[in-house]
Amino acid sequence: MMSPSRWSLRATYFTVAAALLGATSACVTTGTYDKKIAELAKLRADHDRAAADTIAALTAERDGLRKKLDDATALVKELSARLETLGQNVGKLTSEKGELAQGLADAKARLEELRRQKAAAEARAATFRNLVARLKSMIDAGRLKVVIRDGRMLIALPNDVLFDSGKTDIKADGQAALAQVAQVLATIPDRNFIVAGNTDKVPIHTARFPSNWELSTARAVEVTKFLIANGMRPQVLAAAGYGEFDPVAANDSPEHQAQNRRIEIVLQPNLADLPPLDEGKATP
Predict the structure, then answer these.
(1) How far is the C-alpha of 111 from the C-alpha of 104, rounded, in Å?
(2) Which sequence spans correspond to the domains of the chain?
(3) Which of 11, 30, 103, 250 has the fewest CB atoms found within 10 Å of its own CB?
């Protein structure tokens, strides 16, 4: 889950980068330039650590599933050996053999499920690493983040990069960023995406936007249309507006409000990654 400090890091990183760019066209002291370079290097290192932490969490999930897989494999072997032994005394131990046979079948089914979960976890980790690598230059520039929040993998772009206050027209810098994102997402197969608009808690009351619901939804639609115009298939995209009701930080300061004003492009999970439904049992 994104923390306020990480959004603060993004804002500070962007400011330092802008200062460095400005320094190339104006006279500054060597000490000032070196200080800005050091700040930029620290912010980049902080981001790399955050990405490494996420990858480590996904790796831990994979390793946990691998251990469960090994345990289930051992159980299958043990039950198979016991079943073979009991087969020599069918007349006396028919009941126990039947129980073991059922246990063996259940263990094999669990084994297959663990194998599927392990493969899905490895695929999610690979997708995350691929996105981070391909969008690294934009991440380093503070123009977007690739994160996992509430179990969802998503690309988060701050509204300040995309829109002016209260507007839905995508700014030139925002268009350049979204064009790069579209090129990357268009190459990801078998995935659907939700473009989600979010605002801070400051209300808006205009003829066009009676509330933040309308503003966030209109912005999500504009981003969706732009992604389609830049190579993404409309069949894999949907737009949604959450207004101020899905915050990532408290709306208690301008800095936190800026973190909540954002567009998120959520990677929907493959249906194959979801556990199968048992049609024969009702969900309690």
Answers:
(1) 10
(2) 1-140, 150-273
(3) 30
Confidence of residue 271 (pLDDT cuts 50, 70, 90): low
Task: Match 């902080």 to its residue by tokens.
Answer: 46
Per the CATH hierarchy, to which homologous superfamily does domain 150-273 belong? OmpA-like domain (3.30.1330.60)
CB under 8 Å to 166, separation ≥6 — which residues?
204, 206, 209, 215
In the chain, the amino acid numbered 50 is: A
Q: What pLDDT, in 10s, does the model give residues 182-213?
A: 999 999 988 899 999 999 999 999 999 999 99
pLDDT tens track for 133-150: 999 999 998 889 999 988
DSSP annotation string for 207-252: SS-SSHHHHHHHHHHHHHHHHHHTT--GGGEEEEE-TTSS-SS-SS
Local structure of 201: helix, strand or coil: coil
